[in-house]
Amino acid sequence: MENYSAKFLSIFAFLLLSILSSAVALLRPPSIRAEKLIRDLNLFPNKPINVIDLDRENSRYFSSGQNIVEWRVKFPNLVDPRGVSLEDLGHHAGYYQIQRSHAARMFYFFFESRNSKEDPIVIWLTGGPGCSSEMALFYENGPFTIANNLSLVWNEYGWDKVSNILYVDQPTGTGFSYSSDRRDIRHDEKGVSNDLYDFLQAFFKEHPDLATNDFYITGESYAGHYIPAFAARVHRGNKAKEGIHVNLKGFAIGNGLTDPGIQYGAYADYALDMGIITQSDHDHINKVLPLCESAIKLCGTDGTVSCMAAYFVCNTIFSSIIARVGDLNYYDIRKKCEGSLCYDFSNLEKFLNQKSVRNTLGVGDIEFVSCSTTVYQAMLTDWMRNLEVGIPSLLENGIKLLVYAGEYDLICNWLGNSRWVHAMEWSGRKEFIASSETPFEVDGSKAGLLKNHGPLSFLKVHDAGHMVPMDQPKASLEMLKRWIQGSLSERTIDSVKLVSSM
Asked: Span of the secretion signal (predicted)?
């Protein structure tokens, strides 16, 4: 039997390599899916930037032995600043000199809590892979949003109302993060999580008064890969006493890609359940599912080339659905897809590339990269890896996990996320599966359905697509607040009803 299995895997690997060979043309230029999902923007400036003059007047240099530079920022077009000073705002931007790199710098924003500096530290990671966290900052859960005239308006439901929040541009080449050496581009979660852990150590050295605060990792989409890997890295560093102890309390994944082996199997089922494909379409699309599942298993044991092949094999499932539904917005199936990200996020680039804003941020001549196909392609060998495997040990150590998903998202749909959460092997699995669904209520309205046992929670969010904080800002803020307080299942007493913001 073992010889048969070995022969089968050998033959299967050969078939996958054949598929990969025929698909290589899709990589140069980027694959059709990559072009559709994210914009083809410049990753590296045209001139060498090993040494960058961030701001001569304010001496924002990396001096010898200095790993991080940070400064307070006040955007020039912030509406209704209420007369607050730069110090009162507590808004910061900075660059971290990535230690395990040749010439890489990681850009970040840090916003002190509007409530108290003793509130938890929350870090937000946007997915892609290769999309900037500024997308979440200005369109989802940051302190303000961008108006059509490119002014900033305070966000009533910004997550900085209950936390000190960090938005990080990563991996290298995303957003305002950069390098002059292409060897710094990351290809897997080891590189990504090490960079984030090292950044966190440098950040707490810069802000020692915050180092004992509770710490939570959050994000969405491909961050379903980043977040578990980063959480495991922090936990490992704590156990080994590597540096500053990080008071990790939990991690939250929104509409994420975490366990592809299970989640790709949910694509056609979800599409059928939502009525966007027929039963005949479903059955035809799922004919490739056994090959996809086998390819993912081979990726987990055989490495890089088979992972690339698995990416191409499995994504025929998603592509087949999209071919049938046409211009449907795969981030929110209630809407039509408009533009390369299915939404118009053009004001983000317009705003951040204004000279006055760039001067405030101290980014010099670096072009803002909202989403990078270069980073996207570099992470393709990481795509089909299962990041659920490291989660059970975190749960067993009492570190909380919240998986939440907007019900109208196709690309990282709630059904696939629910399935991997329920399938995960840990000591509380039986109790979690047996637990009943309870309404998640906000101001008297049913905002979602919640399952919970011990440190594990799963929340299906109503009237939301892929970007829950954008579609349901009030509910998402309440979700974060209750989760970090350990009261996710509690109800509020106000009778005001929730209304989708889009």
From this structure: 1-25
Closest residue by Cα to residue 488 from 459, 445, 461, 446: 459
| Cα within 13 Å of Cα(453), Cβ side | 15
Helix, strand, or coil (residue 125):
strand
Specify the pLDDT at position 10. 46
Q: In whole angstroms, what separates CA 174 from the centre of its chain? A: 12
Residue with tokens 């395990």: 100
Candidates 454, 438, 447, 444; CA nearest to 486 is: 454
Q: What is the total residue count of the chain?
A: 502
3-state SS of the chain: helix, strand, coil percent to 5?
45, 20, 40
State the greatest distance between any 2 C-alpha atoms of the chain, in Å, as a whole number.
75
Q: What is the pLDDT of residues 134-184, one digit of tens each?
A: 999 999 999 999 999 999 999 999 999 999 999 999 998 999 998 888 888
Q: What is the pLDDT of residues 345-362, one digit of tens each?
A: 889 989 998 888 988 998
Q: Which residues are catalytic?
A: 221, 409, 466
The model carries a pTM of: 0.87
Q: Are strands 438-442 and 121-125 parallel, antiparallel or unpaired?
A: unpaired
Question: Is 343 in contact with 370 (CB distance < 8 Å)?
Answer: no
If you search the block for the tokens 């897997």, which residue do you land on? 188
Q: Which whole-number Å values give the CA distances from 181 to 43, 103, 176, 381, 430, in the listed order?
A: 11, 6, 15, 20, 49
Which residue intervals of 343-413 are DSSP H helices?
346-352, 355-361, 373-378, 380-383, 391-396
Q: What is the mean pLDDT of the chain?
A: 84
